[in-house]
């Protein structure tokens, strides 16, 4: 018999990528500890589960250990671990024989889909949350104790649900260079594979890849390998790609307890941590990818057929579109000069903006407290600090780099963070005091 839908959910998750998938598991695994399990519903705009599908390049590997999956750091005995997945699909011995902590992104995506298939009854795919509005309880002088969530979909039109807590996990937003507008010739890395597959790769003559991060390097390599007639120009702000620091001591910045160190630190100390450790993640590239690109360029030199070029110490500053023609301007720090280049395609692997919290919250954002730099104030349990008359909870999975540090938008701490959020929601349901 189908379980009736509650009139008010304990949790509505907005977005259903890895973070809220991990939350759904944490809710399920906590159910046994609760007198009445927390009820949850998730809304996801994609038509089915997907995680950076356009960056599932054939050779791309994960940059975090398979043990930093959806659950293991919170519950190593969970049936939703990467190891359970390998066991279920009959690949555990083969994976172990390979002695490699870093599966391909394609295999990790299979794992995520395998887990997500267990939660389809809680998720509405192909739906967009279009408004979240506060709802006051029956006492007009009482607190706002829940939210009304407006959901739109082409299949069902506009519907509404209510929830005592919302958990935002809508993901990062692509960042383009100023005044660059995306179209069939101007791409962001987040749409790479889809657009690459749509064009005739053999007809590409000039491809420019902008950026010096992992996305840019992987895409430059892919274009070189799969667009056989193209000259690929990598426009990189530094002199050459820098290596992602994946060494054991530096990796400790992603440990669960590093979140406490960051959260409770003074602002100047937080700045220092960013300066010291941003090279674990931003504008850096894995050693293997750097070396494989270098090798390709060297082999070109040996053959006398240069197809991979590097515009180092350079940034793109302008793009002009006219019909099928695309012309970009590149500014070089060396000699401080600019020049134009005609291209078939320019791929901007120029990174991402943090999750757009205001965009989802709309007017509700007016209830949220800001710090002296106008950033959201966030509790240690990832709950937004709100005005006193709002007792319903707004939790963030992402958008908390300024409060919780480097791992906020990454997989590394996802399992632990989801557990912390579920504990907090459960505690607040009974108004229990926090244990810190
Ligand atoms: P990113 O690390 O933020 O790199 C963006 C790059 O674009 C930076 O080098 C930036 O340089 C450059 N840039 C921005 N504007 C530019 C301009 N106008 N001209 C030239 N360069 C410009 O972004 P990402 O590479 O997309 O990586 C984002 C996250 O995804 C990272 O956590 C990464 O590890 C992850 N990722 C993982 C994989 C994988 O698991 N295999 C693959 C791809 C990405 P400045 O900093 O100087 O502006």
CATH topological fold name of the largest domain: FAD/NAD(P)-binding domain
Q: Which homologous superfamily in CATH is the superfamily of the largest domain?
A: FAD/NAD(P)-binding domain
What is the CA-CA span between the terminal residues?
A: 41 Å
Largest sheet: 5 strands, parallel
Average pLDDT reading: 95
> Which structural class best describes the helix and strand composition?
alpha/beta
Kindly state the percentage of residues in helix. Answer: 25-40%
Oligomer: single chain
Commentary on this structure:
α1 crosses α13 (414-429) and α6 (214-226) runs parallel beside α10. This protein has helices spanning 18-30, 82-89, 92-97, 105-116, 192-198, 214-226, 248-251, 256-263, 267-277, 287-303, 357-361, 401-404, 414-429, and strands at 11-14, 40-44, 123-125, 128-136, 144-153, 157-163, 165-168, 173-174, 186-188, 206-210, 231-235, 308-311, 314-322, 325-332, 337-343, 345-348, 352-353, 393-396. A hairpin with a 7-residue loop joins β4 and β5. It is globular, with a radius of gyration of 23 Å. It folds into 2 domains: 11-172 and 354-429, FAD/NAD(P)-binding domain (3-Layer(bba) Sandwich), CATH 3.50.50; 175-244 and 282-351, FAD/NAD(P)-binding domain (3-Layer(bba) Sandwich). With 436 residues, the chain is of the alpha/beta class. The strands form 5 sheets. It has a 5-stranded parallel beta sheet, with helices on one face. The chain is built from 13 helices and 18 strands. 28% of the residues lie in helices and 22% in strands. The model has no long low-confidence stretch (mean pLDDT 95). The structure holds NADP nicotinamide-adenine-dinucleotide phosphate. The site of NADP nicotinamide-adenine-dinucleotide phosphate has 27 residues, from α6 and β13.
């Amino acid at each position: 018999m189908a379980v009736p839908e509650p009139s008010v959910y304990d949790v509505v998750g907005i977005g259903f990528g890895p973070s809220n998938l991990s939350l759904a598991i944490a809710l399920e695994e906590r159910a046994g500890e609760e007198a009445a399990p927390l009820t949850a519903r998730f809304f996801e705009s994609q038509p089915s589960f997907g995680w950076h599908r356009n960056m599932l390049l054939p050779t791309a590997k994960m940059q975090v250990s398979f043990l930093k999956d959806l659950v293991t750091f919170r519950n190593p005995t969970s049936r939703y671990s990467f190891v359970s997945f390998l066991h279920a699909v009959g690949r555990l011995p083969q994976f172990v024989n390979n002695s490699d902590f870093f599966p391909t992104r394609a295999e990790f995506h299979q794992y995520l889909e395998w887990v997500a298939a267990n939660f389809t009854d809680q998720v509405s795919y192909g739906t967009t949350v279009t408004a979240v509005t506060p709802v006051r309880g029956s006492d007009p002088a009482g607190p706002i104790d829940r939210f009304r969530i407006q959901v739109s979909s082409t299949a069902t039109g506009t519907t509404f649900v209510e929830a005592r807590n919302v958990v935002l996990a809508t993901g990062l937003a692509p960042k383009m260079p100023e005044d660059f507008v995306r179209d069939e010739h101007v791409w962001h890395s987040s749409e790479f594979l889809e657009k690459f597959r749509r064009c005739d790769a053999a007809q590409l003559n000039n491809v420019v890849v902008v950026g010096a991060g992992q996305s840019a390097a992987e895409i430059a390599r892919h274009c070189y390998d799969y667009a056989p007639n193209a000259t690929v120009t990598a426009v990189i702000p530094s002199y050459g790609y820098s290596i992602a620091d994946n060494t054991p001591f530096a990796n400790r910045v992603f440990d669960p307890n590093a979140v406490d160190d960051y959260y409770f630190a003074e602002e100047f100390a937080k700045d220092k941590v960013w300066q010291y450790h941003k090279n674990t993640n931003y504008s850096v590239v894995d050693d293997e990818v750097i070396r494989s690109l270098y090798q390709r360029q060297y082999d070109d030199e040996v053959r006398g057929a240069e197809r991979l070029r590097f515009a180092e110490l350079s940034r793109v500053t302008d793009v002009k579109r006219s019909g099928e023609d695309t012309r970009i301007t590149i500014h070089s720090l060396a000699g401080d000069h600019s020049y134009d280049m005609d291209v078939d395609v320019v791929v901007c692997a120029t990174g991402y903006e943090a999750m757009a919290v205001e965009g989802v919250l709309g007017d509700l954002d007016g209830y949220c407290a800001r710090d002296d730099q106008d950033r959201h104030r966030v509790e240690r349990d990832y709950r937004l600090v709100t005005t006193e008359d709002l007792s319903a909870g707004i939790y963030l999975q992402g958008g908390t780099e300024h409060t919780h540090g480097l791992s906020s938008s990454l997989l590394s701490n996802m399992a632990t963070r989801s557990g912390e959020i579920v504990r907090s929601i459960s505690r607040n349901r009974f108004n229990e005091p926090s244990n810190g």
